[in-house]
Design brief:
- This protein is mainly α.
- The chain is 84% helix and 0% strand.
């Protein structure tokens, strides 16, 4: 199989992750509008995040096995078209009860795309460049936070959440076309055998890393899921102000991911995970001190720098430790991301529903500190082995 230079394909995968990330985060960005439009509480609307994350969590490893033999060019393009159709249908749903199952079907696409794009990127470059390629492709999620999330929130705030969903559908079609035109045909990672899956599941190091990912995600999404409603209630933020705050968070996320992408092969993936997770923890620690929007903007900077960068470092960490097992380990890591989102959103919703919103940052911090402790223990055990 002859392949062209991979740069165009890597960019297409990055853009695909941008679209996927924007679609995943459109619900947190438009939670106020969804709640008002469908006449449900914010905590109830937030269960769209929990339910979608549960689907992505379970779907990532199961679908990785189901699509193992597919040509990645066809698989990723079709996945984005599914995403487009799902967002169109979501925008047409008349009630929360109708929206929830359609949203759950729609997010089958992220369960497939993100892990398969990461594994595919690792096959397009020489082994010594895998870490950088994987983190480069994952920059799409940071770009989604910089551009997609605030623009989606702005569209949702002024034109309604349905128009935000339709915009994502249009982007998905464009991204599917880009994947089809630039990705080489014939990329078929070797299907993981049952024995290989067992090697992943029985590896204390690999599964420990996945657990770190889940704990990080849970700690962040206790607050992140309800960021819009919290700013509206506590600081009187309107749609434009909220969009600006999302954009600040996203810019920091892009910067953090770019730094990680540039230096991860030199510093080491495990150390990068530690640095980025400590940044997240520092923001959660000082969150209760943010008494104004200006101070809140300052508090968000470390969190933004670490938020998406730590997921990139975790993906590269898994690919570097066991390249042959990457399709399975990266799929399980994506499952860990979405497990964290589901747990965090559910916990945050429960705290809000029980008038315990003041405890959200402390609950998140506790989970992130456990993640830090586990990550450090994994690195120490590997050095001692």
């Amino acid at each position: 199989m002859s392949r062209p230079a991979p740069q165009g394909a890597l960019w297409a995968l990055l853009v695909g992750n941008f679209v996927i990330g924007t679609g995943v985060m459109v619900v947190p960005g438009t939670l106020n509008e969804i709640s008002a439009s469908l006449s449900v509480t914010v905590a109830t609307a937030g269960q769209l995040i929990t339910a979608a994350a549960a689907v992505m969590c379970i779907g990532a490893p199961l679908l990785a096995a189901a699509v193992a033999g597919w040509d990645r060019r066809q698989l990723l393009a079709i996945t984005l078209l599914w995403y487009a159709a799902g967002h169109v249908l979501c925008a047409l749903m008349p009630s929360f009860g109708a929206l929830l199952p359609v949203r759950m079907l729609t997010v089958i696409a992220p369960a497939i795309f993100t892990p398969q794009a990461a594994a595919c990127a690792g096959m397009l470059v020489p082994p010594e460049h895998r870490g950088r390629a994987v983190t480069f492709v994952f920059l799409g999620w940071s770009m989604a936070s910089v551009l997609g999330l605030p623009i989606g929130a702005l569209i949702g705030g002024h034109l309604g959440w349905r128009m935000a969903f339709m915009a994502i559908a249009a982007l998905s079609v464009a991204s599917a076309t880009s994947i089809w035109l630039t990705l080489p045909s014939g990329i078929r990672p070797a299907a993981l055998t049952a024995e290989a899956w067992l090697r992943v599941l029985r590896s204390p190091v690999l599964m420990g890393i996945v657990s770190v990912t889940a704990l990080q995600g849970a700690g962040q999404f206790v607050l992140f899921s309800y960021f819009g409603p919290i700013l509206k209630q506590s600081f009187g933020a309107d749609a434009t102000t909220l969009s600006v705050m999302w954009a600040l968070f996203g810019v920091c996320g892009l910067i953090g991911n770019m730094v990680v992408s540039r230096y991860i092969d030199r510093v080491g993936a495990g150390r990068m995970v530690l640095i980025t997770t400590v940044l997240i923890a520092s923001s959660l620690l000082v969150w209760p001190l943010a008494s104004t929007l200006a101070w809140l903007a300052v508090v968000l900077v470390p969190w933004g720098l670490g938020c998406f960068a730590t997921n990139s470092a975790q993906q590269a960490r898994l690919v570097g430790l066991a390249p042959a097992l990457a399709p399975g380990s990266v799929a399980l890591n994506s499952s860990g991301i979405y497990t964290g989102q589901a747990v965090g959103a559910a916990l945050g919703g429960w705290l809000l529903a029980n008038d315990a919103g003041a405890w959200m940052s402390w609950a998140g911090l506790g989970l992130v500190l456990i993640a830090i402790s586990l990550s450090v223990a994994i690195d120490r055990s590997r050095r001692a082995a």
